[in-house]
Amino acid sequence: MSDRSEVIDPGSHSPLRRPQRSVLADDVYDIIRDGLVSHRISPGSRLNLDQLARELHVSNTPVRQALARLESEGLVQKEPYRGFSASRLLDSRTIAELYGYRLLIEPPTAARAARHRTDAQAAELEALCDPAKISPFVADETPDGDLAQLDVDFHCRIARQAGNNVVLENLAQTLTRMRLYSAYGVHGAAELAWEEHRAVTDAIRGGDAEAAATAMRTHLTNGLDRMRKAFD
Length: 232
Known about the structure:
Layout: H1 25-37, E1 46-47, H2 49-56, H3 60-72, E2 76-79, E3 83-86, H4 92-116, H5 119-128, H6 131-139, H7 145-162, H8 165-178, H9 189-205, H10 209-231
Antiparallel strand pairs: 1-3, 2-3
Helix pairs in contact: 1-3, 2-3, 4-7, 4-8, 4-9, 4-10, 5-7, 5-9, 7-8, 9-10
């Protein structure tokens, strides 16, 4: 089936920015991914490959490559004879399963980061959790894409400091999928989450592996509880 058969709902997404540097597949991927996770491209909307290529002033090839990468990350879906569409918002069961995966992976990862931490690495985490940096986002009770990305950065930084690239790669993909849903719109959720981040950071700074694992487990368990309340 030709790509021309794909349609996109009028008004289903705001205009995307154009690539600012030499046009590469990575640039196109970054731009479309940003549109998806920020919901400028509406969840569930059909994606017209030709239209995206015209909008970004590129050929179809880098757009097709970008959509294939985004499909592997769960941000877009491809249906036979229908083409690509933006993934729909995650349901409560899928989010619970993603939290279950994270509970298996992230507590021991935080423990490893604590065992191997350096002062410089601890300072990196503390900078990410700095109340002066987070407070402006927390004060706004509406879901915020920048705050969600800071959350991703925090968890991925711990995985990077733990030194396991496989964990880092898979966790980054999981967290990207989870950006299709955020409980930050729930009153007080963001403030609580970042207080828990600071507890994890304090344990890592102290080199206490057991405390780091416990703090991370508490954070994820609480996050799952906040998610369930958001769906009620």
